[in-house]
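To the team - S-adenosylmethionine complex, inputs and output below.
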Amino acid sequence: MDEAEYGDTMIQTLAVIWGEGFLSPGGAGEVAELLRGLDISGKRVLDVGCGAGGIELLLARDYGAAEVLGIDVEAPVLEHARRLIARHGLQNRVRFEQVSPGPLPFPDASFDVIFSKDAVIHIPDKESWCQDMFRLLRPGGLLVASDWMRVDESEPSAEMLAYMEAEGLSFRMGSLPRYGSAMADAGFVQIGLRDRNEWYRSAVRAELEQMRGPLRAPLEAAVGVEETARNTALWARLCAVVESGELRPGHIRGLKPAC
Ligand SMILES: C[S@@+](CC[C@H](N)C(=O)[O-])C[C@H]1O[C@@H](n2cnc3c(N)ncnc32)[C@H](O)[C@@H]1O
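Output:
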């Protein structure tokens, strides 16, 4: 089971640090930042790389999406997501589907809104991804996403390479300008790009302090002493590359023209 990149141990670890159902930082607050000023009530929403379901809960329960389809390439996260949504009785509006990497198996213009949080980091070809998202949106539809990005397209520093090796995940970070160009080339208009390094700089330091302090016991209870120590050391590396400015979470938005 734990052959998956996001297996049960990681899901449990991240639930303690970032909240149940979240595999990325910021919880409801960061989702609110992403959706600020947008109304997704009554919309058909696709969530790419949905993970363990915390985001689907927010999109359906708090933002009133009519239908949410969460897709992911891994089975363990989808099992968690389905259980979470069932506990909240939202199965009639939230579905999940396991997909293979690459173009998604849905017809053109299937969705009003495509959402994604910190998942495209696993997709090397950002340009093809933007083209596929453009295809899947109905005219007038919106792409809203956040991702972990690098400051630019240069070679990663030794610190970044060491962090990524310690993380052990298939990270392929692009830069915010690269996303902007990829979206424009795909046909998106009204493109919005927002750097979130400053926010995460303070949040990640707080996460590390919590892991060394009050979260240590809950983490050890959830995943054991050794795994907790490994993750705390990993977070120190993560802090370093966020504080150096090399790792920069970013938000992107784009509109598919109505005609
Ligand atoms: C950092 S987690 C974020 C999960 C969720 N969006 C969240 O914020 O909690 C990244 C997710 O992307 C998924 N993923 C990796 N490659 C993918 C791909 N090609 N298409 C869709 N999802 C993918 C992973 O399995 C994982 O669940």
